[in-house]
Amino acid sequence: MIGFLGAAYPWVKAAHLIFVIFWMAGLFMLPRYLVYHQEAEQGSPEAERWIDREHKLRSIILTPSLVIVWVLGLVLAANLGLFSGAPGLGWLHAKIALVLLLSGYHGWAAAYSKKLAKGERRLSGRQLRLLNEVPGVAAALIVILVIVQPF
Predict the structure, then answer these.
(1) Roughly what angle, to the nearest 10 degrees, separates helices 90-117 and 45-56?
(2) What is the mean pLDDT of the chain?
(3) Residue range 73-79: average pLDDT?
(4) Per DSSP, which regions of 5-146 are E strands?
(5) Tens digit of pLDDT for each residue in 20-48?
(6) What is the pLDDT of residue 2?
(7) 27, 101 Cβ separation under 8 angstroms
(8) Could you count the other beta carbons within 10 Å of the beta carbon of residue 32?
(9) Which pTM was predicted?
(10) How far apart are the C-alpha atoms of 7 and 14, rounded to whole Å?
(11) What distances in angstroms separate CA 101 from CA 3, 44, 87, 104, one per listed residue?
(12) Range of the domain at 91
């Protein structure tokens, strides 16, 4: 379905996918950074480097990508008729729910990064390593929903 985007549809979809890749790359990197940061001695030069790396990742890649993914994704959803009640978009509702959860994960990881910068270490390395898997599982489910469109 091309909808109101007309010939721009494939370009908007391509841009959306490009920024999804950037966002996911950041979501794969930041939790790993958190593990290394937490293992560094507080106040050490190594810990200070992790603080700087995490800040750059959040401000240069993660947050801008998140915003662009949402803007383009909502435009694509509107183009498909999500807001006008088009039938057969159950898969899109599920995808948006997963993207909302992934956005919440993004917020949690960014906040934990800032807490680590202040010296707060509330999770174990094992817990952080387990949380590292969230973006991969979410990405797999989202890809299945988009490609297979099971409902």
Answers:
(1) 150
(2) 96
(3) 97
(4) none
(5) 999 999 999 999 999 999 999 999 999 99
(6) 72
(7) no
(8) 12
(9) 0.93
(10) 12
(11) 28, 34, 24, 5
(12) 3-148
